[in-house]
Structure formats: structure tokens, C-alpha cells
């Protein structure tokens, strides 16, 4: 079963930046579209905020467009999310997964808190 290991979260002030990383197990990483999802403190449904195809074409949700940058290193089975100009509304647990997600295979996520 695939495993996703997210890291890089933390507490940051509004306007700050963070870079998240996610290492993915298995041998199909190079052939799949990857995404970063987030789940807010209210426990609402996970929101897909950024995707990147195996050809490294990115797509962003309107809520993060112009502020977040998704990238991937196929040699390292790793996907990244550079988050800039962070806002309190970005506070959430961030997860990576396939797009569409592999059900039942969510990692622990990494907490991002934006607060002064």
C-alpha cells in the first residue's frame, strides 16, 4: 500500500512562507498526478489546493493561485508546496496524495498555522 509522508509545517506569521515536502513510497510516482490537499480546523472536507501532472504542469485552486507553487522531483519520489504570502485562512493540516486520491492511504499530514 502506498505511503505518503508529509513534513515542513509549522507556525508562521501572516505574510510569511513555508515549504512543505511529501515523500511517496512505491514505484508509480513518475506516472501519476500528485496533489496537495488541506483540511481546516473545523474538520471540513479536504480541499484540493494544487496539482501537478507527471509532465510537471501545475493547476491551482483560486484560493491559493499566485501565492503557492507546487513542484516535484521524480527522482526522489517527492512533491513540494512552496507557500508564500500566507494568510490565517491557510491554517489547516496539509496532505499530499494522488489525484484522484488513493482512498484509505492518507498520511498524517503536516500542520500549518498562520497566526500573529
Summarize the structure.
This protein is an all-beta fold and 116 residues long.
Q: In which range does the helix fraction lie?
A: under 10%
Main pleated sheet: 6 strands, mixed
**Helix-strand category:** mainly beta
Instruction: State which percent range the strand residues make up.
Output: over 45%
Report the order of strands and helices. Answer: EEEEEEEEEE
Average per-residue pLDDT, rounded, comes to 95
Topology:
Blueprint: E1 4-7, E2 10-12, E3 18-24, E4 34-39, E5 47-52, E6 58-60, E7 68-73, E8 78-83, E9 92-98, E10 110-114
Parallel strand pairs: 2-10
Antiparallel strand pairs: 1-3, 3-8, 4-5, 4-9, 5-6, 7-8, 9-10
Which features would summarize this protein structure in a list?
mainly beta; 116 residues; 6-stranded mixed beta sheet
What does this structure look like?
This protein has 116 residues and is mostly beta strands. It has no helices and 10 strands. Strands 2-10-9-4-5-6 form a 6-stranded mixed beta sheet, with no helix packed on it. It has a 4-stranded antiparallel beta sheet with strand order 1-3-8-7, with no helix packed on it.
